[in-house]
Description:
Oligomer: single chain
Strand content: under 5%
Largest sheet: none
Number of strands: 0
Distance between the termini: 15 Å
Amino acid sequence: xxxxxxxxxxxxxxxxxxxxxxxxxxxxxxxxxxxxxxxxxxxxxxxxxxxxxxxxxxxxxxxxxxxxxxxxxxxxxxxxxxxxxxxxxxxxxxxxxxxxxxxxxxxxxxxxxxxxxxxxxxxxxxxxxxxxxxxxxxxxx
Length: 141
């Protein structure tokens, strides 16, 4: 007989699954970016180097933003939409804060791309989190 897991354990499990899946996707995306620019060293080192930083960002910023999203959107109408907005906004803000304000002028296209990438990865985090939430709910029934 399978024991019922406690609610906090299921919440942590759900967040870690979403974090892990998003992190694996970041590794793949960074390797594909390296392949697109035809840089063998980038294909090898970018997933390792950037994977470390993206993993840390997901663990120490993505999970707290997701927990905040759950708490804020818990009783709101259209909960998934509000959770999505909070996730994407949080991902964009975290990337913006990690990159800083830039050099005060010039071309900030790389910063804009990184912020958009952070928002996209936050959307993936949200998608996996919502999918796993529904999966656990169906399993409980």
